[in-house]
Amino acid sequence: MAAPRHSAMLSISNASTPQSTSSDKTQVQQPQSPAGTSGLRVPSNRKTIYDRHLNRSRNAELSRASFAYLFGEMVSYAQRRVTGIQDLEKRLNEQGYPLGLRLLDLLFYRATSTSSSALSSSSTSSSPPNRPLRILTLLHLIHGPLWRLLFQRSADALEHSVSPDTPNEYMITDNEPLVNTYISVPREMSMLNCAAFVAGIIEGVCDGCGFEAKVSAHNQPTEMWPSRTVFLVRFGDSVMEREKVLERAGVK
Amino acid sequence: MTVYSFYIFDRHAECIYKRRWLPRPTSVAGKSQIPGAVGSSGQTVRAGDDDAKLVFGTVFSLRNMVRKLGGEEDNFVSYATSQYKLHYYETPTNIKFVMLTDLKSPSMRIALQQIYINLFVEYVVKNPLSPVEHPGGVGVNNELFEESLEQFVTRVLA
Amino acid sequence: MCVSTKLHPRSALAVFSLIIINKAGGLIYQREFQAGLRKLSTNDYLVLAGTFHGVHAITRSITPKLPLQNTASPVASSPGTSAPTTSGFSYPNPGVPVSGLEYLETDKFRLTCFQTLTGTKFLLFTDPMTGSVETIVNKIYELYADYVMKNPFYQLEMPVRCEAFDRHLGAWLRGRT
Fold first, then answer.
1. What residue ranges do the domains of chain C occupy?
2. Closest CA to A198 of A190, A187, A206, A188
3. What is the pTM assigned to this prediction?
4. Given A5, A216, C145, C153, which is the most exposed site by the fewest CB atoms within 10 A?
5. Are A209 and A202 in contact (CB under 8 A)?
6. How wide is the angle at C-alpha A118 spanned by C-alphas A116 and A122, nearest 5°?
7. Can you say whether the dihedral through the CA atoms of A34, A37, A39, A44 is positive or negative?
8. Mean predicted lDDT score pLDDT of chain B
9. Is the dihedral of CA A109, A114, A115, A119 positive or negative?
10. CATH label, C15-63+100-175, candidates 3.30.450.70, 1.20.1260.10, 1.20.1560.10, 3.40.1170.60
11. Which of C38, C60, C98 is opposite residue B68, by nearest beta carbon?
12. The complex's ipTM?
């Protein structure tokens, strides 16, 4: 279920360690040595992850249990030395933020290569993807492609704040956040929502597109969906001003 | 079906009778047995004293647990592990009959009741020479009772 | 089993209650699903868990030991037939690991005890006629592994207070009946 998320994490984590691999390539000369000193294991066919096509792991499946344990440890880790629930949510948010920033590139890359011929290795042949310029385009990108990349399904709802005082607030709803599947929050921490991690990812994506925003996760349980979560996206004033200018200019 | 051992506990929690049967050697390890070393009818062995105490402690605890959960009129019947099955029967006079058998055996409740009615009452309770209480097994270890118990287990139950 | 399920459609599915005991003998979970057994106080349940923990160990230790008769060749005895033998005796079921109490029967209920490899015990109280108790216990273990062990807020060996576990357990048992 969590397949795309893991594959995305995999490619990201590797992209962030180019040095270790380049040093590793010297070791490849002796395939007999069992990867002792380097840390990275080189496959027997000598093809590192950089030699693989980026879309290779797009539909690969990874263990949901492994993710649950990993995320559980992330929460436990964030829980150490925190002063309160808000502090804990902030830490989870900070863990997700860089992921969102980096995920954006993969998201754009995959968005194009699926639309055109997936077989052609170079993405230059198809039209390069456009960075979203308007808020609504961005939100649709998050609601649809980003959610599908992470969770293999779209988010459940996208709403604009009805209050005239807060036109910069948008809400994305997930009825059953994957990250919260196995988590029961203790009663004394009932305000906590560990999907703050996902909120951090959204914030990273928004920032990566040039939309300054604050994103937070809130519990909104219903009878049918006990772990229903609303992600509140609040765009900064500069974004709202630009939005008005773009609207007048007719940019879509 | 194999019977491994049999215990009687009186109302003072004392073990007043115990007996162990060894199964036929063929059922243990089928190779190169010395023929005639053990009679096929089984052989009685004095079980260790500790064993009886542990058995009593177990059935006593389980009986109390069952009464607590199921009510006073509920009865502990048997339990099983991966290796053996323990059957339990308690008379209205608070004498406890316990039998350990292999896992294949059906419920032994009726059998234990028969041992009580047809053997214990007949040969121990009705025996004018037997005392009312049986400290150390006095009165239970008479020839008639032991003989007929042996027959019951080896012929009727086998 | 199948026949009895058909004959007693209601009672055959009765699951009275569940108790989880940690490896030290402490009660970490107790929940009643259907009326049928007497209600005990929390303290009584704690005592029951501790008692059962001890009894379980004893039921294992009083496993009958069958003396081996082949004194002629005690060492070079057939290796396949009696694996867990130590000098001179074997257990009734040589191929199976020795366990403590696995199920207990009374007039009114059946207690099934499932012990995990790490020593946690699941005690399930059902109607004596309930079929396929093993399926139920396995499912409970699965839910425990998912919603208790994967919960970052659960502290090992401590009482289980996981709302998601309660919810899924209740929903699954209701779905069965």
1. 15-63+100-175, 65-97
2. A206
3. 0.79
4. C145
5. no
6. 90
7. negative
8. 83
9. positive
10. 3.30.450.70
11. C38
12. 0.80
